[in-house]
Amino acid sequence: MRTTVDLPDELVLEVQRVAREQNRTMRSVMEEALRDTMAKYQRAQAFELPDASVAGNGLQPGLRDAGWDEVRVLAYGDRL
User: Fold this and answer.
1) Mean pLDDT of 71-80
2) How many structural domains comprise the chain?
3) pLDDT at residue number 44
4) N or C: which end of the chain has fewer CB within 10 A?
């Protein structure tokens, strides 16, 4: 796909220099830079919940076979 982008002169000169040094086209240098930036952006968008587990042996013995409704009532009480 073709498109027109207005870039600062110094950036274009830098891309030309890198392309020349690496014996590549300006297009390949710019495409690589854009793909790297997009990959970085996508990684930044991903969210991973940190491990907040605590030491212990799981639920108390009386709750090991309890369903979520029972656990929720004990956890939240009257705030439900």
Assistant:
1) 85
2) 1
3) 74
4) N
